[in-house]
Amino acid sequence: MAVKLRSMGFVLICVALLAEGAQAQNCRLSLSQPRVDYGVIRREALVDPPSIALGTRMVQLNVLCEEPAAIALRFTGAANGQGFRFGRQGRFSLTLKHAQLDGRTVEWTQAPGETASGQLLPGQALVARGTGRRLSAQVAIDTHLPADALHVRNQTVLEGQGSFELVSPAAPQNR
To answer: How far apart are alpha carbons 82 and 87 in whole angstroms?
Structure first.
């Protein structure tokens, strides 16, 4: 994700940079778009909020396996609490929504016997309960910046980056 902030005009352009694809064992992961553009935000249009939500953007994630497999996903990026760092002060979070495994609704787990919400947390993987050949999900990307991130004198680039990984469900959940 990248943001350009400009003094006087205070233009905010935000782009999410996500890995285009990943491969593990007999599976391949792909995204509908590796970059998400948040458009332009002008500081004068804002009413001095304590933080700025850049809105939710959706990306389609697909995993296709040659043979039925257990599918686990992790997002690797710089951690910021319950999300990932965006610039020095901001953060973004990722949540998998409307997930289907071979046409069935996916129930996510993080540890054996524990149901997970679908939010990808730093250092943790989400495991789809069951096995299948095709997983599809919408990835909701929510980005927040503190309002003072707009107080800059020159053009400034803020970014947040990371990549999706297919991991073995038996792999350690934390890094």
So the answer is: 15
